[in-house]
Amino acid sequence: MRIRQRINSDIYKSISPTNIAQFTVVEVRDSILERSDMYGNKNTARLFVARQLQILEDAGFIKSDRIGHKKYYSRTPAFFEANFKLIEKKKRTNVSYASKNKQQKPVVIDLENEKTDIEAKLAITLAEVDEYKILMARSGELKQLLSPSYSAATQKAAALMAKLNVWSSAIDLIKHSRSTAC
After folding, report:
1. N or C: which terminal CB in the chain sees fewer CB atoms within 10 Å?
2. What distance in Å separates the CA atoms of residue 125 and residue 151, rounded to the nearest whole number?
3. Residue 63 phi/psi, 5° resolution?
4. Tens-digit pLDDT profile for residues 105-138
């Protein structure tokens, strides 16, 4: 008797069509975000998808090729023979916002989601800056070639940091104005 494999229904709908041979985490993320708003922002949804795909890969239903951002997945024969149990995403309730002013709630949630996206972009950009430093330290030729890209990455990091400071300040002001109004 085959064991039933649990799988999120939105992910299953994204990867099961016969016309899809290969897929990436980002493609599945975009697909589930089109279907439902229960996955939060892009970063949260991407993490959810990556974890679900890792479970399917560990179980042998899909396989991956390459690593990092270039990683893509394909279904194995076991996927087509599997007995999947489709699970709906449970809605998360956030008690801390339940008592908040309904008019301001969407603004804070949007700002916090955007702040999370900015933080993710900043982390990636700072990692790029570090990698440029490592490569530029290898030789004078690499330093000369990569210097413009390094400068662009540092400027991008500075702009993202400024943006993050503004978003953080705005969120703090909204929260502070709510606490003094109570």
Report:
1. N
2. 12
3. -130, 155
4. 578 888 988 899 999 889 999 999 999 999 999 9
